[in-house]
Amino acid sequence: MTRIPLMAGNWKMNLDHLEAIHLVQGLHMALTDANFDYSKTEVVVIPPFTDIRSVQTVVEGDEMGIKYGAQDVSVHASGAYTGEVSANMLKKLGVSYIVVGHSERREYHGECDQKVNQKARVALENGMTPIICCGEGLEVRKAGEHVPHVLAQIDGALAGFSAEEVAKSVIAYEPIWAIGTGEVATPEDAQEVCAAIRVRISELYDEETAAATRILYGGSVKSSNVADIMAKADVDGALVGGASLEAGEFSKIARFDA
Ligand code: PEP
User: Which of 154, 242, 200 is nearest to 253 (CA)?
Assistant: First the structure.
């Protein structure tokens, strides 16, 4: 079973729509200069909602191989939900991926596993791929409870999903203590938890589903550490925050084997 590597850049609340156009064009140029093969690695940018239409316009206009995603989605289809954005609105903008359950959403917006499950379902039902985030805080890691903690999040996030839906989804393991801190989990740390997630999927479903599901690592990934992380058997890509805001750096991350 071949899993195509996925390099996704979560811009968080950075860059207005003009800066977004500039970054996507710069990324495309850097990858084109390096003869990048988009059929071998998927490259995804995940801008704020207000940038998505502009990103769509340049990506489609210049027929770029870059895909784009959204950082969140409403569980509701439409109606009186001030400030929310529906899956159908994102689908109409050509969005391929939706991040659900990022630790910042869990921390600042109280998103629980049940909400993450609902959002992932909404993404799938609308033909988009959820990037389901999980990960432990420092206290849990220090207590050595990181694997059961993450597996409980996975059980909650995937509740009620069919094997086919899981295989279509992407999981991102992001230890919270390594996000935006410069503190990177070792490649062995990343492998330990990504492998445990894959085993869990095989227990919940079957080997085939586990072998098909892409599992990313996220947390202070840079061009200087990405190759060692990607060398691990159960790591299929990276969810990148800070280092995705610079075209040259993110293009090097996307070419992790260059
Ligand atoms: C993230 O927020 O998903 C992330 C991994 O951030 P950073 O790469 O900046 O640690």
Answer: 242
Do residues 137 and 108 touch, judged by C-beta distance below 8 A? no
Three-state DSSP state, 15: coil
Is the minimum distance from the CB of 239 to ligand 1 under 6 angstroms? yes
> Which residue has 């993110």 as its token pair?
250
User: Rounded to an integer, what is the distance from CA 186 to the centroid of its chain?
Assistant: 19
Q: Show Cβ contacts of residue 186 under 8 Å, excluding neighbours closer than 6 positions.
A: none
What ranges make up the beta strands (E) of 31-176?
42-46, 67-70, 97-100, 129-134, 170-173
Tell me the residue length of the chain: 258
Q: Ligand 1: does its nearest atom lie under 6 Å from the Cβ of 124?
A: no
Choose the residue to mutate in 179, 216, 245 for probing ligand 1, maximizing ligand atoms within 8 Å of C-beta: 179
pLDDT value at residue 248: 97
> Residue 97's beta-bridge partner residues?
69, 129
Query: Quick check: CB of 225 below 6 Å from ligand 1?
Result: no
In terms of Cα–Cα distance, which of 42, 102, 96, 39 is closest to 70?
96
Instruction: Give per-residue pLDDT as tens, 142-178.
Output: 999 999 999 999 999 999 999 999 999 999 999 999 9
DSSP letters spanning 176-227: GGGSSSS-PPPHHHHHHHHHHHHHHHHHHS-HHHHHHSEEEEESS--TTTHH
Q: Which residues contact 35 (CB under 8 A, 6 or more apart)?
A: none
The letter for the amino acid at 160 is G
Tell me the per-residue pLDDT of 224-253, one tens digit each, with 9 for 90 and over: 999 999 999 999 999 999 999 999 999 999
What residues are paired with 46 via a beta bridge? 10
CA angle 200, 214, 59 (to 5 degrees): 155
